[in-house]
Specification:
The chain is mainly alpha-helical. It has one helix and no strands. The radius of gyration is 66 Å and the shape is rod-shaped. The protein starts with a helix and ends in an 8-residue tail after the last helix.
Length: 164
């Protein structure tokens, strides 16, 4: 009987081991499925991030091209502006020189005008003196003539028809 007892104990042990093995197999299958799911989601995330990186790289390349074009445009504009500035500075210098010459001419003309005005004033003063002298001479002559008329009227004895 001991043999019979041993067999069922071994059978129970084997069954227990089989149940344990099945339980471990189910647990490991669940862990494997979890790992597979995790690996799949990480792979999808990596692919998504890879696509995002590729998109960002393409974006960066386009922006680098735009920056290079902008640098070229800026350089060209700087050259054009520098050329225009030099041209304008040259024109300003030329106009300033012309204005200086015109200012000198105006100063010369102003001095000539002042001299001419002084000469005319001197001539006018001279003419004024001459007229004053003529006026005095004329008034004196008129006075003398009036005195002579009165004297003659006194000799004639009455006012004449020519008295003033």
């Amino acid at each position: 009987m001991k043999k019979l007892v041993k067999k069922p104990a071994k059978k129970d042990e084997v069954a227990e081991l089989k149940r344990e093995m099945a339980r471990l197999k189910r647990g490991s299958n669940m862990k494997i499925k979890g790992f597979e799911s995790q690996v799949k989601s990480q792979t999808e995330e990596i692919e998504r991030k890879g696509k995002e990186i590729e998109r960002l790289k393409a974006d960066l390349q386009r922006k680098d091209q735009v920056v290079e074009e902008n640098k070229k445009d800026l350089s060209r504009l700087k050259k054009e502006n520098s050329s225009k500035i030099k041209e304008l500075e040259s024109k300003v210098k030329e106009i300033t020189e012309e204005l200086g010459k015109k200012e000198e001419n105006l100063q010369t003309l102003k001095k000539l005008l002042e001299q001419r005005e002084a000469d005319l004033n001197q001539q006018l003063a001279s003419k004024d003196k001459e007229m004053e002298s003529y006026k005095k001479g004329t008034e004196e002559r008129i006075f003398q003539l009036e005195a002579k008329i009165k004297e003659l009227e006194g000799k004639i004895g009455g006012p004449s028809a020519t008295s003033i």
